[in-house]
Design brief:
The chain is mostly beta strands. It is built from seven helices and 37 strands. A six-stranded mixed beta sheet has the order 30-29-28-25-24-37, covered by helices on one side. The longest helix is centred in the N-terminal third of the chain and has 11 residues. It holds the Pfam family Vps62.
């Protein structure tokens, strides 16, 4: 009888499955500051913003949680930072969606001895939102408060409580206005439903509005609230008022970061067009063409020293494969035995983070393939082009040298993921999958479609035998803040890395349609409509230094 009761209990009583956020994510072996070569202010734990000292806190106490809405309809949890160093103060609380392990950070701050007025307590709070009247699954009553600053100061984060009572004015500090900049919404964290409702409550991450290598805005790691069409005041971000980059890594520290975090790239088992070094491409017959002298192309020096430097992408020059067919076919295939990864290092978020962009060059980008219902067809010349530059970006905290985010470039855009959301290999090396023919990077193997209704341009990824550890033959080609890094001549070539082939894409699409049965013709038209020109066109790309993200932020 006891056994029967136990079996029935297992059938009728469902054990609650733990949420991903109930697990704290940690890297396999986080590098501690002593493991980095010593030098400057990188990975020392604190950064001076010019009279305001800040440090990064990654431990939290839970305040309040919802159990529905947001990504995967799993809700969100709100936290306050804990284990705050002596004399430092909270600037804002933290929020994260429940569908991934807890892996967050916020900045806390203290005034420098020579500038004691950089922080001030709020004079009151404004209630931004309360869960009291909301019919949602939640813990107690959650309230989000915006500090009301004294004159000359601005709030840079919210306070969250699990009761309707106003929090203590001691809970948080406002920041003097000259240490602040404007913020904007980042990735979606939570809303009352599982989709973004522009007329309802939404919680987002925050990021400085002005971002890039020269920008001074500093993210504090907190969140922003949008409550429908209500005109809400938003907090600000911090500003780095120093003119120095002391928190940026030295060259020796960059080398240590590359060895710790250099990504591993897996190529599809059917991939024919692999990466190569730029030098190998030039040495094996790549040619430089000039407008008006098309019949007299020039061979290229191995380091690209005879390429035109500077200028703009005005179609006056371009590169192409060797003329000889056998050489052309051989060079198209590239080869991992002669492939380098090219690294560009730049400051981000007011030099409180380091972006390490890893660029990979392919001599050739293969044709696009389209999925139509249960059929996959090649689009022939559509989508193929000479020269292909793809990249991944590691975003590393300058406070402790830990990897926080990885950006995967995908054709005309990309995806930024927390370190907790990606696969790792060989310790702390992020794993990326290059799509078949098009070489877009994804964090997981499988199929990603660019289209609607289960039809569209295919991006197939899988773990083939061809694999590239980008740290094995790493070449740091640019780090503008370090005078010791000499840029190769080819990096400053501003024109196309492949020819612009003129053909009527509409006619090419019509050729494909002719061989399709009647029902699939309409499906095909819908599948290719709205696909970026970068995917469908046959035009070589510009080089890494000509991309917007070279000096700016990634597009996601």
């Amino acid at each position: 009888m006891g056994i029967l009761i136990s079996l029935l209990a297992n059938i009728f009583i469902k054990k609650k499955k733990p949420l991903p956020i109930e697990t704290i994510f940690k890297l396999a072996s986080e590098p501690e500051p002593p493991n980095f070569p010593q030098g400057n202010g990188f990975a020392t734990g604190t950064i001076d913003l010019g009279g305001l000292q800040v440090c990064q806190v990654t431990s939290f106490n839970k305040i309040w949680a919802t159990h529905e809405g947001g990504p995967d309809n799993l809700g969100s949890t709100f936290y306050e930072p804990s284990a705050i160093p002596d004399n430092y103060h909270v600037l804002g609380h933290y929020s994260q969606c429940n569908n991934k392990p807890l892996f967050g950070w916020v900045l806390v701050a203290k005034s420098s001895a020579n500038d004691p007025s950089s922080l001030a307590m709020p004079i009151d709070y404004s209630l931004i939102w309360s869960s009291e009247s909301q019919k949602i699954k939640r813990d107690k009553t959650g309230c989000i408060w915006l500090p009301v600053p004294p004159n000359g100061y601005k709030p840079v984060g919210y306070v969250v409580t699990n009761s309707p009572e106003k929090p203590s004015l001691e809970k948080i500090r406002c920041v003097r206005s000259d240490f602040t900049e404007i913020v904007e919404f980042d990735r979606w964290i939570w809303g009352l439903t599982n989709e973004i409702d522009p007329n309802g409550l939404n919680v987002y991450g925050s990021r400085p509005k002005d971002r890039g290598a020269q920008a001074t805005g500093v993210s504090i790691g907190s969140f922003l609230v949008q409550n429908g069409l209500a005109d809400l005041s938003l907090p600000y971000c911090l500003k780095n008022n120093t003119n120095t980059l002391l928190a940026m890594p030295t060259f020796a520290q960059i080398e240590a970061l590359i060895q710790a975090y250099s990504p591993i790239i897996y190529f599809h088992p059917d991939e024919k067009y692999l990466p190569s070094t730029v030098n190998w491409y030039f040495e094996n017959g790549a040619l430089l063409y000039q407008k008006g002298l098309e019949n007299n192309p020039s061979p290229i020096e191995p380091d690209g020293s005879n390429l035109p430097q500077g200028g703009s992408d005005d179609d006056s020059y371009w590169l192409d494969l060797p003329i000889d067919d056998s050489a052309k076919d051989r060079v198209k295939k590239g080869g991992l035995d002669n492939a380098n990864a090219y690294f560009h290092i730049k400051p981000m978020f007011g030099a409180t983070f380091t972006d390490i962009a890893i660029w990979v060059f392919y001599p050739f980008n293969g044709p696009a393939r389209v999925k139509l219902e249960f059929v996959t067809i090649s689009l022939g010349k559509i989508g193929q082009h000479v020269g292909d530059w793809e990249h991944l970006t590691l975003r590393v905290s300058n406070f402790d040298g830990s990897l926080k985010y990885v950006y995967f470039s995908e054709h005309s855009g990309g995806t930024l993921l927390d370190a907790s959301q990606i696969e790792f290999g060989n310790g702390n090396k992020p794993v990326a999958y290059a799509s078949l023919n098009g070489h877009a990077f994804y964090s997981k193997p499988g199929l990603v479609l660019q289209g609607k209704g289960g039809n569209g341009i295919r991006n197939d990824t899988a773990k083939g035998k061809a694999v590239m550890d980008t740290g094995v033959r790493a070449a740091v080609v640019a780090a503008e803040y370090l005078t010791m890094v000499e840029e190769p001549p080819w990096l400053n070539y501003s024109r196309k890395w492949g020819p612009k082939v003129s053909y009527d894409i509409v006619k090419e699409i019509e050729k494909v349609k002719k061989v399709l049965p009647g029902k699939l013709k309409e499906v095909f038209e819908k599948a290719v409509s709205g696909v970026p020109n970068e995917v469908l066109g046959e035009e070589g790309p510009s080089g890494p230094k000509m991309k917007n993200n070279w000096n700016g932020d990634e597009k996601y």
